[in-house]
Input
Amino acid sequence: MVAGTPLLSLDDSVQRATTEQLRLQAQAALELLNELKAQPRKETLEIARAQLVQAEANQQVAQDQYEKRQAAFQFDAKSISKDALDTAFNVLTQARAATEVAKRQLALTQAGAWSYDIRAQESQYRALEQSHLAAQAQLGKYQLKAQRDGVVLAVNASPGTFVSSTGAFDAYSQGQLPAMVMSAPQDELAVRCYVDEILVSRLPEASKIVAEMTLRGTERKVPLQFVRVQPYVSPKLELSNQRQERVDLRVLPVIFKFSKKDVPAVYPGQLVDVYIGQK
Output
């Protein structure tokens, strides 16, 4: 097994849907931002110009009507009522106001989107994009991959199994087991020996330690290479009911190693007998 190999996949249906939703929201925010930056829209600008032309035309009509009625009133005050002249003036005033509104609407359209709206939309897009990236990173954690080259020793979970932070439930032992047990490449294997605290004083110096192990059920003896002593004496754990059984024997762990190619029929977790001597 090489680094990057997928090992376990968790149910990611909810997280995948959430990630896709955030992606679409970020995409929609980006489209709206591009829309704001692209303003004024050509079609909207043409409508604003047409509205100005219409307002100016209405103003000209109102201007002509008022001038005609004013000229008639000045020529003969009895030819047209004062009320009709005032009405024509009011219509002209409204037409002038409408023309001014159309001019300002055209200027507003030509100015494009407000800079504050663009900045606010940019912030909205960045926030949604970061949320999408965070959800995507979280989605990546739903698949466990090997961080380095190694060997899978045991898989204690199957499709549909519930796995928590404490591991997977084992029906045989009625306890929690790691979902998967892994090790480094097995070119070399380590042997952990527990030395009775009574015998600790008889251990040779590190440079003088020699050891060999015997595989149970065989007469094969394998030389071991001393690695280190774990300098902490702790209670010995029995093979069954490890966390509840009370034991008085305390032991010192001593680590050795050997090349796997010399002993192909040996596996991690196997019990062996070790003899420790002195050069």
Observations:
- The first helix runs from residue 13 to 38.
- The chain is about 40% helix and 25% strand.
- The longest strand covers residues 250-259.
- The mean pLDDT is 89.
